[in-house]
Amino acid sequence: MKLHIANSMKMIKIKKLSKLIIYCYMLSAICYMLSGCVTIPVKEPLRVYSLNGTIYYALAPLCDLRGISLKYDTFSRTANLFKDSHSITLKVGDNLILVDQRAILLNHPVDIYQGAVVVPGQFKEQTLDILFKSAKITAMRRTGPLSLVIKKVVIDAGHGGNDPGAIGRRGVREKDVNLDIAKRLANRLRAEGVQVVMTRSSDKFIPLETRVHITNNSKADLFISIHSNANRTRSLHGFEVYYVSTSVSDSKRAAYSAKNTYLNLDSSCFASQSQDLKAILWDMVYTYNRAESIELSRAICRSADDNLAVMVIGVKNARYQVLCGAQIPAVLVEVGFLSNQNEEQMLKSSDYREKLSQSIMEGIRNYARGSLNKGEGAG
Ligand SMILES: [Zn+2]
Prior knowledge:
6-stranded antiparallel sheet, binds zinc ion
């Protein structure tokens, strides 16, 4: 992927996180002096709205209900939520929020409706409810459907059309194997109420940039690319999962994203530093995404190891273009080697492809449970 690096971005060094926190404190201090932060006293029922088809909650009653203290600064239009040792920073007009200094990208921005700050349902369900959990919600999530944690997944069947990918000695084509497993996985996810976006659902050539574009416009939680391997050494065999290489610079990707994506941080308070700040926030998003991608890779490998009679090579990192470009946690699953006679035979079998999709599905489920436990641990 071609990255444009603004000269100013070279200034961004390792301690971006602490730099950002200092920024936030300085800005809050300035804003406090200029306009005064207000602790909003509320005693009112939960208010729910549907804005352009998305469920939104009024923030103040939501916080009130959970005993979270809320400070809203009208000048910077920033809300700070505190409870116990946790803090959340939200900004009107922004999709990006900071939860205990960790950046999280929401599918919809924080907004103002009828004069009140409103937050998307996703924020309530995936952040507030987990961080400041209630026993009832936790119990529901433990036993509840996967779609409570993961709403939408992009499934990318590698290759297609005039690009067959690897071809086995017996003529099994990678593009067909990938698409079949992708469709089976999509069916499984849909059966659990998870929305699926497929980069291709037929034997069609889709350029890599288009796959990345589809992914970044999908507002999905995860990206899963399905491929089959090949190697000159025909004895090589096994199942492996890739995440984006640590040699890919998050700062460079962040600088590119800050310049070219919708994340909007421009406002009176952030105006002068907006480009730098955006890059810092994107850098945090990429760092977070890589950590999540590693978790997901591990969960899928563990599941394959438990459920498939195949050697699991393990988790690896690589500079795959689709993975570099994705702005959400992204993994690439290499289901087996078509260059290996045994594995080509296995991949030819629809029963085995069904088992593969089942294993990947189980991995996603375990990943979701793991991220839930992390939330519970923090709460
Ligand atoms: Zn491939």
